[in-house]
Amino acid sequence: MDSEKLNDRWSAVKAQILGYPDVNAAEISAFFSRLEPQAMSDSFLMLTAGNEFIKTWVEDHYLASIQRALFDMTGTPFAVAIAVDPTQEQRQTAQAGAATAAPSPAAAAPVMAQAAGAAVPLAAPATPATPVTAGAGGGLNPVSAVAAGAEPCQVVEVAAPSTVAPVAAPQPFSGAPATPPSPASVAPAGAIETSEASRAAASPAAGSPMDPAAEQPASTLTFSNFVIGESNQMAYSMANEVAGNPGRPIFNPLFIYGKSGLGKTHLMLAIKNYIDKTQPHLRTVYADSADFVSKYMEASVAHDREKASFKNFKHYYEEADVLLIDDIQYLQNKKQCLDMVFQLFNSLTAQGKQVVLSADRAPKNIDVDDRYSSRFSSGGIVEVRPPDIETKLAIVKRFAEECSRNEGFSQCAIPDDIQMYIAENSSSNIRELLSAVTNVLYRMVFSGQSDMTIEGARVLLENHFSGGMSRNLSAEDIQREVENFFKVSHADLLSAKRSRSIAYPRQIAIYLCRQLLDVPYEDIGRKFNRDHSTAIYAVGAIEEKLKKERDVQEEVETLQKILSEL
Ligand SMILES: Nc1ncnc2c1ncn2[C@@H]1O[C@H](COP(=O)(O)OP(=O)(O)OP(=O)(O)O)[C@@H](O)[C@H]1O
């Protein structure tokens, strides 16, 4: 949701509360003006307050009213989180002083999580949509959030709750973990890394713990090197909230879902790494589901000779204060493992211990007993959506800079047009984008092509990309074929006209873009002069028709065939 809409919704909530008989309008005016909305989804609203007093006061006096208003307006129960942003007051004061000169709110520009202890207003970008990379260094406090109502590209560092101690400088993007893991004792199932406390009790295998997918040390995946854009802002905020306040019922469990390579594991390990640094007395356990299953099998087999193996296995997870299980769709059809995860889940959440789960789909679409999926859905659920071009470009830039710095390639900078080429052509899977950057950099450094041109990059990456907007098919190709098929002009297809003869082909074209191009709704909407909600609506409308109307199925199949032959 862009900042303008977010502010509008928040204003509507305030107006709704003012309509209730039991509220004090003066209090609302005094205290609510010190709150800023940061993010909102279908069931979650995140606000920041300028200081601890305002936060606590609003929580004590008006949290229920905010929730009531949201429920009355939407018919859905909402979780509402309030974090402290100590810079908010300074900004509000400064803005009040310079009210007339203040720039308009940011249009959901991608930002890099701010890692410094205090907010650092970043250099104003060329356009409001230009991504921003925040500075490194300093402590990492939850909750960092994009200030929806802040100046363009300003990043706000929200203070850690008072119980959370300040932490050391964030990890570099790649490199040695700050705290070397201790040697293995009992190597339990599926754990990549545990906190200090847990290492003492039961440690995973020795050596640098790696993010298996990205070959980056798990300890280097932090909030500070996660690029925030509209597609992942909500997931980032919720993950931050959990890292700062593990075990709060509204986010327990936290369920993060989305397609492969969108940053779910990064966020889970960022939660873990943050808690390990700020609350080392808590035992955090991260487990990838595939590892969990294989260790479960090992423990079951070993159980015949070594009676304690299964007990040790279970114990390892039971004693977690924070349990993070990645890719749980992998547990579908693995009944015994699933039962064990469910038992762990129930026992930990009942004790107020935090559970974080991730999957490539929403809980309701995981093929498990309804009982399980409804329990998995009982806390915060958030989708990480495919990144838009701006976010991809921000990730390319950050990764290229980090690579150059860490590998000592500082004399080689990837030209802007090549960076844009990579962002535009890579699929939504960030791994593909990162490996394109690595390929280009290595070619520049080791083949003496430090002046690589866009043509050189095209040749080098010819077979690299699996999808993306412009690889084989573009939105323009789809529009053209749909226009020919339905005999609609291009101007009409992009117009505001709503007659069925135009709206229906438009919806089909949008649907095909969603099916055939690996791009987010925002980008598709833009191609049709519309916003992402219209694109979502169009896709939903065609999906409904496809279930019942044979004509529509045939039209879509024919168009897909035409497009596949281009
Ligand atoms: N917003 C982001 N900012 C910085 N790096 C990112 C971002 N999103 C993803 N990445 C990087 O992309 C790579 C893939 O991300 P990750 O492993 O977290 O994806 P995933 O969603 O867990 O995928 P899978 O479902 O396949 O496990 C990692 O190197 C991660 O650090």
TrEMBL record:
GO terms for cellular component: cytoplasm; plasma membrane. Residues 184-214 have a biased composition (Low complexity). ATP binds at residues 261, 263-265. Keywords: ATP-binding, Cytoplasm, DNA replication, DNA-binding, Lipid-binding, Nucleotide-binding. Residues 1-160 are annotated as: Domain I, interacts with DnaA modulators. The keyword Mitochondrion does not apply. Pfam families: Bac_DnaA, Bac_DnaA_C, DnaA_N. Gene3D superfamilies: 1.10.1750.10, 1.10.8.60, 3.30.300.180, P-loop containing nucleotide triphosphate hydrolases (3.40.50.300). InterPro entries: AAA+_ATPase, Chromosome_initiator_DnaA, Chromosome_initiator_DnaA-like, DnaA_C, DnaA_dom, DnaA_N_dom, DnaA_N_sf, P-loop_NTPase. Residues 474-542 form the Chromosomal replication initiator DnaA C-terminal domain. Residues 250-388 form the AAA+ ATPase domain. Residues 445-566 are annotated as: Domain IV, binds dsDNA. One of its GO terms (molecular function) is lipid binding. One of its GO terms (biological process) is DNA replication initiation. Residues 173-215 are annotated as: Disordered. The keyword Cytoplasm applies. Belongs to the DnaA family. Oligomerizes as a right-handed, spiral filament on DNA at oriC. Domain I is involved in oligomerization and binding regulators, domain II is flexibile and of varying length in different bacteria, domain III forms the AAA+ region, while domain IV binds dsDNA. This is Chromosomal replication initiator protein DnaA. It comes from Adlercreutzia mucosicola. The lineage of its organism: Bacteria, Bacillati, Actinomycetota, Coriobacteriia, Eggerthellales. The gene is dnaA.
